[in-house]
Amino acid sequence: MHEGSTSRDRLGRDLRSWVESVTPMTPESARSESPRLHRERRRRRQRALGGVVTVVALSLGVLIVVPRLGHSARDVESVTPGNSAPPRPEGCSLDARTFVDEFVSAPAALGEGLPSGSTLSLADGTVFDESGLVRVLSIDPGTAVPRQSLDALEISGGFKVVVVERCGSLASIATIAESIRSSISTAGSNSHLAGVSISLDEGRGLVVLTGPRVIADELVAEARVDGALIDFASSVSSTD
Amino acid sequence: MSADFECANSKDLTSYGFDAFVVSVEPILRAALVARHGRDRGAVATAEALSWAWERWERVREIESPIPYLVKVGTSRTRMRLLFPKIEPLIAPREHEFEPGLDKALRKLSDRQRSCVVLIAGYGLSFAEAGEVLSVTKPTVQKHFERGIERLRNELGVAGPESDESVAIEIGVDEDA
């Protein structure tokens, strides 16, 4: 480069040359590029949207899984049945299986939670009354919970309430989940339920409520139907 | 160059067809976008802006000053590309003769300094015209140009200007500055 006006002329030429090193657009290329650019914009938007969805899904996964890792399971110590429950000796201990058999599978428990006045005592001294449990929604008469399903869904050290519902459609499962969420909200600070999972078992729905655990800020119901996962998030306000 | 700019921004364009419009506005549009975003993104931004103009030609032909508008369109439409740098530029840069260190030196300038320097020193636009293209005021253009040209000269190791006034006069860019 040179000094004075020569250098400025040269700088100007260099700057123009720098810009013109990019192939100019012609009217024809502007017209022909238009559809391709349009397609590419759409593809970029879809990719961006996919990325956002993935990040949100991963974030939700972390929020759901991490809080559960720190909770210790507690054993069911005993159930003191109320008036409408099957008669049992006072103070008799029940394990999870017996609890399910007596309070869920029994027709007397349909549409109810723990019978009025009855309590469920845990090994650590936690006592539940009927308001602390989700109601059994409905049971198709004569339908039994498959033993293998119970075993597969068993969570070590916890108890669960299994509700069998004839529901072949996604809509009915969503209805169940919504009902459970509503029930959990109603239970309020007495709720000691850890979560709700729903799955289809050859046309029937298994609604599994797992627990106990220290009151969770968030309870999540999941419905799995043919591999599709639908998340239902619900919050329970806690005074603990 | 200044005459080209006036033609490209005059209302007479409304009587032109799209072909004449592109021929008229493309050089300054490309210069503004390449200067602002660099050659790769600038090339894509130019293509995006002119394609957008073609898709909405009936509307664009009514715009009194299309270049500033299209500069914004090109910038906006290439913003998402930053997320996906693997996408190849739509237009491959040609090999050209210019100072070997110019590309690197220009990258040291801010976007606005680079835009002002290219449009004024390279394409002979006045401060006011460059301000219109870049949607900034004339004093702002002057300030960025002066800082940019000084920095560019320093980067290139070129002898500095005698004064700001001489720069304006000798490159004949701003009669009304």
Task: Write up what this structure looks like.
- The complex is a heterodimer of chains A (240) and B (177).
- Chain A is of the alpha+beta class and 240 residues long.
- In chain A, 39% of the residues lie in helices and 21% in strands.
- Chain A is built from 5 helices and 8 strands.
- In chain A, strands 4-6-5-7-8 form a 5-stranded mixed beta sheet, with helices on both faces. A 3-stranded antiparallel beta sheet of chain A has the order 1-2-3, with no helix packed on it.
- In chain A, 28% of the residues are buried.
- Chain B has helices at 2-8, 18-37, 39-55, 57-60, 66-77, 102-107, 111-122, 127-134, 138-156, 164-170.
- In chain B, helix 2 (18-37) crosses helix 7, helix 7 packs across helix 8 (127-134) and helix 8 (127-134) crosses helix 9 (138-156).
- Classes of the chains: A alpha+beta (240), B mainly alpha (177).
- At the A-B interface, helix 1 and helix 2 of A face helix 2, helix 3, helix 6, helix 7 and helix 9 of B.
Short description:
With 240 residues, chain A is α+β, with helices and mostly antiparallel strands. Chain A folds into two domains: 1-70; 76-235, no CATH class.
Describe the SSE topology:
The complex is a heterodimer of chains A (240) and B (177).
Chain A: H1 4-20, H2 27-69, E1 76-80, H3 96-103, E2 119-122, E3 127-128, H4 147-153, E4 159-166, H5 170-187, E5 195-201, E6 204-211, E7 218-225, E8 228-235
Parallel strand pairs in A: 5-7
Antiparallel strand pairs in A: 1-2, 2-3, 4-6, 5-6, 7-8
Chain B: H1 2-8, H2 18-37, H3 39-55, H4 57-60, H5 66-77, H6 102-107, H7 111-122, H8 127-134, H9 138-156, H10 164-170
Helix pairs in contact in B: 1-2, 2-3, 2-5, 2-7, 3-5, 7-8, 7-9, 8-9
* Spatial shape of chain A: elongated
Low-confidence stretches of chain A: 70-101, 103-115, 120-174, 179-240
Per DSSP, the total helix count of chain B is 10
The helicity of chain A comes to 25-40%
Structural class of chain B: mainly alpha
Low-confidence stretches of chain B: 162-177
Distance between the termini of chain B: 17 Å
Assign the structural class of chain A, choosing from mainly alpha, mainly beta, alpha/beta, alpha+beta, or little secondary structure: alpha+beta
Order of helices and strands of chain A: HHEHEEHEHEEEE
In N-to-C order, the SSE pattern of chain B is: HHHHHHHHHH
| Overall structural domain count of chain A | 2
Question: Can you give the mean pLDDT of chain A?
Answer: 49
Number of individual domains of chain B: 2
Number of strands of chain B: 0
